[in-house]
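Can't paste images in this forum, so I'm doing it all in text. The chain is below; anyone willing to post the predicted C-alpha cells underneath?
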Amino acid sequence: MIRLRWGRVVRVIGGRNGLTELVVDVDGRHGRAVSYAGLCQPAQAGDRVLLNTTAVDLGLGSGGVHFVLAVAGREERDALPPGHLMKLRYTPEQIAVRGWEEGLAPDAAGFMDLAGLPVVAGELHSQLTPVVLGARAAAAAGGRPAPRIAYVMTDGGALPAAFSRQVHALREAGLLAAVITAGHAFGGDLEAVSIHSALLAARLAVEADLAVVLMGPGILGTGTALGFSGVEQAWILDAAGALGGRPVAVARVSFADPRERHRGLSHHTRTNLGRLTHRRALVPLPALDAAAERRRLERQIVESGIAARHEVRWVERAPLEAALAEPPVPLESMGRTYADDPAFFLAAAAAGWAAVFLEHGF
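Text version of the structure:
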C-alpha cells in the first residue's frame, strides 16, 4: 500500500542532476522531500504538493524522505519523451528514456564481448567510493594513468541515480567517466535495458577500463538466506564472465556489525559466492592486522565453499589505507564510518585495487 498526503513547500534546499531537495510541511510537521525533474513539475516555496510519505511513516533509513508526486495546479506535462524505453513500467510514474541500445545497428549482437574488461560487482552502494579509490590508487602505484571507470547502477536499491550524493560527489571530482542506469534504474548518462547491455555500454560507449556494478542507495533485506536484493551480485558476476569480462567480487566484511550473521564475512557474501555463482571470480580481501580477524575470514572462506569455487587474493592493508585517506565524500555504511568499521571499506578498496592489478599485471 501507499500513503499519500498533501503538504506545502516551506523552502527549496538545493538540487543536483535532476533532483531537487525541499523542506515541506505535512500536517504541521516539517520534513525533507525529494522531487525528480523527470517525474513531476518543479516545485517552489509555497506550492502545494502531493507527497508519498510511506517511507517516512515506516521510519526507513536511506529512503526515509517524502517524494513529490505532483504540484497542485501544474499536474500536466507536455514534454515529448526522448526515446521509447519505458522504466518504472506499468506504474503511474512510468517514464520514457532513450536507451543506449536504440542507437545500435540491428546486428550489434555480434559485439557481445567485453574483451576482458574487469567488472567489479558488489552488494551495497556504500562500496562504490572505496572501490573507485582503490582502483585509482593501484593504477598510480603501477605508474599507469587513472582508469576510466563506468559505474553501472542496478535497480536493486534506489532507482533514480540522482538520489545518490555519492555519485554526484564522484562525478564532481572527476572520478567517474560515466554512470549507466540499468533495468528500472534511471537518470544515468546512459540508460540500458539490462545489466548485460549496460556492461556492453561500459566497454563500447564509455570505453571504460573498469566497470563497477552496484545497486543504488538502500538494500532490501529480511534476515533470511535469500531474501535480500544483494543476491544480484551472484548473477552479475556470472553475466560478466559469460560476456568475456573478468569478474571481481566485493566481499562484504565487518567486525563492527552487531548482527552475528554479518560478522567477519557477511552471510550475504558467503551465500552469493559460496552457493549462487556459476563462474569463477576473483575475490580480493584486505590483509587485516588482527590475527583473530584474519583467521575468522580464512575459516569462513573455506567453510562457505568460496575457497574452492573462486580465486581468493589477499591485498596488503597499507596501500588501501592510503587510498582511502582523502575520500571525496565521507565513507559511511549502515550508519558506521571508516573509523567505526575499517574492514568494510578496506575490503571494497581491495576489490578495486585487485581489478586494476588483474588488468595490467604489475
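The chain has two domains: 4-71, 106-360. The mean pLDDT is 92.
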